[in-house]
Amino acid sequence: MTSQKRKLLETYRALAENYTTLANILEASPDLALTTTTDIPTTSSSSSIAKPKRKKAKTKQQNSNKPKRPSSAYIFFTQAQTEAVKEELGESCSMRMVFTELAKRWKELSPKQKEPYNRMARESSQQYMRELDEYSQHIDDDEIDELEHDESSQQDTKATGMKGKDTTRKPMATTTRGRTNIIEDSSDEETTDLSDLSD
């Protein structure tokens, strides 16, 4: 055994002893313990630990009359070629294998071979724009405001490359010789000295 492995093993043993000592102290003094011993999982499996529930994103109610977005050239290609690829790969192939093969074939196509699919995509886009114009004439003012807000937020997201993230600079904490200061960004607020909080 190398000296590094030996040192690492000794460190782990010392750490285990320290945790055992800490557990004994907490059991002896229940007022020091933050949780009861029944709250601590006894098994090493992660399935017994409750994970916090994620908040579901609020989904905006979609208008069923709104036209669907146009398909891309790749989507038209996959719709046309999926069955042929399934037959070539056999019955036991997964959809993942099918779409991997479709992506590979799409990359290998020349621009001339992609042209029919690009034409279908352009036609689909033109049809979508016509339907969207017709649809926008029939919606009321509230929905127009919502539509404009959605489009502007999408443009903002594309411009910044960030989805809803705050891009303003946050104050930085600096530590110098045991003193922690919060540095505010170009504001007249005084800096907060956090060294008084620690004992």
TrEMBL record:
InterPro entries per UniProt: HMG_box_dom, HMG_box_dom_sf, HMGB
GO CC annotation, single: nucleus
Domain HMG box, residue spans: 67-136
Keywords in alphabetical order: DNA-binding, Nucleus
Transmembrane segments annotated in the record for this chain: none
Location of region: Disordered: 36-72, 134-199
Acidic residues: bias regions: 140-149, 185-199
Compositionally biased region (Low complexity): 36-50
UniProt cross-references to SUPFAM superfamilies, sorted A to Z: HMG-box
DNA-binding feature ranges: 67-136
GO molecular function: DNA binding
Name this polypeptide is given: HMG box domain-containing protein
Organism: Lichtheimia ornata
